[in-house]
Write a structure and sequence with these properties.
This protein is of the alpha+beta class. It is built from 18 helices and 23 strands.
Length: about 550
């Protein structure tokens, strides 16, 4: 069959090479269903063709292009929000073509027949064609809808998935990554709902330091969205890959969980008092999950990031999705060393401790922010202390020297973004004693040791005895010369200083369009039209100057 022209495909018809047809999430679910014996909740996925058919048949493409043209500065949060609201509204106003509606309705009815259930409850998840690729972590940029019931609701949620391509966070992220909004297409996964009594995530690499000897599992009560969203700090378990032995257990108190409503949708409820300090998973469940993780990694041949759930009806463990882990897959492929920063001096006062989510050791001044309406007050080089970040916080996070949060685990928003930006980050301080926002004063100097999860009072500097100072002077790492010149590609001038220490012979390609999108943020024709042609020349020259200065005396092309 010609998969590319189908409106939808069943999981057993899909494999990972179909990422252009159904996106990363859908193709991965199909791969596990068709090629492994890992338990995956059954379902189907609408295709990129179906999305484009909807956009083109309704005349939306040109309207979307016109609205997107008004987004002249993605850093302007008010403008970004206005553009995105109009884009989503334009999509939701359109009636889905009848033949596409009919195809989804028939598939839902067939799913009910195959599962022997009358109008089953399903999860409808977004799967973008640029999502879950090893070099671009788009995970979480689009929306998920849980406990959806009935064909009409499924059709509506598929359209809402289409609209969620244009949330503020998704558009901001694509702009920063250089992806074209209109070339993107979206698949909607319609998958049997797992009534999770516990859920979470797991990795086949330590996402804090790149160590790949163990499997890391995080779990919490209820549906997994509270783990991914950083609303709760999950339990953490570590299993040795070689021996398949449980080597570490960290139990964190959980006071709330997200559960399904009997008639559809979800709701938050308190965790029963007796369960709040109990281990979420049994040791047998932990080892079963680790076995699935090891099997999935062996099949894919790379580090993996997975979500799982345990069904309350029968205790069965399900793998809800699996995708290549992005940060360490890239770093370890480039043979970058594991992070093994020295611990800060222990004779200083410890203010707070938490989970080491993104490694590093930095000092700076704290800025405690409890309300997102105050993120515009955050200044370059400060240390952000907050309850938990969200996608709308990314512009402030890019200015941060380090980030410390009250809640969250290794896959919460603060953890993922910090690792991608290379910013030291500590999360879940509340689970280690006291919350950072109530313990760390605003506006004081601290040292964040994010490799070990500790915040110290004051600015720590390692003092060396004078007699040892000369012997301890740093020695530059030696790289043997090569017959071929090794040049580097660079697009963002702000990264030039950071990467100038790499052993390259210069910049072989500095892409001008990336200078516009990552550094200047305004289109040259817009600047000319608004009477500021000098900014075109001056800002482009300044960006090139920064790179040349950092790389001198090596050439820059």
């Amino acid at each position: 069959m010609d998969k590319s022209n189908a409106y939808l495909l069943w999981f057993e018809q899909l494999e990972r090479k179909d990422v252009d047809i159904v996106g990363g999430k859908s193709s991965s679910l199909g791969e596990m269903t068709s090629k492994t014996d890992v338990p995956v909740p059954y379902g189907f996925a609408t295709t990129a063709h179906a999305y484009r058919y909807f956009i083109d048949q309704t005349g939306l493409r040109e309207k979307m292009r016109s609205i997107l043209a008004e987004l002249t500065d993605v850093e302007n949060s008010e403008l970004l929000s206005s553009v995105c609201v109009r884009l989503r509204g334009a999509i939701m106003e359109q009636e889905m073509p009848q033949d596409l509606q009919d195809a989804i309705r028939r598939a839902y009815e067939e799913l009910a027949h195959k599962m022997n259930e009358d109008e089953p409850y399903v999860a409808v998840r977004s799967s973008a064609t640029a999502e879950d690729l090893p070099d671009a972590s788009f995970a979480g940029q689009q929306d998920t809808y849980l406990n959806v019931h009935g064909a009409d609701q499924v059709i509506r949620k598929v359209k809402e998935c289409y609209a969620s391509c244009f949330t503020d966070r998704a558009v901001y992220y694509r702009e920063k990554q250089g992806y074209d909004h209109l070339s993107l297409a979206l698949s909607a996964v319609v998958q049997m709902m797992v009534f999770s009594k516990a859920a979470g995530v797991m990795f086949t690499v330590n996402v804090a330091n790149g160590d790949d000897k163990n499997i890391m599992i995080e779990g919490a009560y209820g549906l997994g969205e509270y783990v991914v969203g950083g609303i709760v700090t999950p339990d953490s378990y570590v299993v040795s890959k070689d021996e398949m032995k449980l080597i570490s257990v960290s139990v964190n108190e959980q006071d709330k969980m997200l559960i399904r409503k009997p008639g559809g949708d979800t709701m938050e409820v308190p965790v029963p008092e007796a369960d709040r300090r109990k281990q979420t998973l049994t040791n047998a469940q932990i080892l079963e999950l680790a076995g699935y993780a090891k099997k999935i990694e062996a099949h894919y041949g790379c580090y993996m990031d997975m979500e799982w759930g345990i069904d309350s009806r029968n205790g069965k463990i399900w793998i809800l999705q699996a995708r290549p882990e992005t940060v360490w897959s890239r770093r370890n492929k480039e043979n970058k060393p594991k992070v093994e920063a020295k611990a800060a001096a222990t004779d200083r006062k410890v203010i707070v401790k938490g989970l080491p989510a993104s490694p590093g050791l930095v000092s700076g001044r704290t800025h405690v922010i409890l309300d997102p309406s105050h993120i515009d007050e955050f200044k370059e080089g400060e240390i952000l202390v907050t309850e938990m970040t969200a996608p709308d916080w990314v512009p402030a996070m890019k200015k941060a020297k380090a980030i410390v949060t009250d809640s969250g685990g290794m896959t919460c928003h603060a953890s993922i973004v910090s690792r991608e930006l290379g910013i030291p980050c500590i999360v879940g301080t509340k689970s280690r004693g006291e919350a950072a926002t109530t313990t760390v004063p605003d506006g004081i100097d601290v040292t964040v040791d994010a490799t070990h999860g500790v915040v110290y009072e004051g600015i720590l500097e390692e003092k060396k005895p004078e007699a040892q100072a000369q012997a301890a002077a740093p020695v530059a790492e030696y790289f043997p010369p090569t017959g071929t010149k090794i040049y580097m590609n660079l697009g963002d001038p702000d990264l030039a200083e950071k990467y100038s220490a790499l052993p390259c012979d210069g910049i072989g390609l500095m892409r001008e369009e990336f200078i516009w999108t990552t550094y200047i943020h305004e289109h040259p024709l817009y600047l000319i039209k608004t009477g500021h042609p000098e900014k075109v020349v001056d800002q482009l020259a300044e960006g090139i100057r920064q790179v040349c200065q950092a790389m001198a005396p090596r050439p820059v092309t």
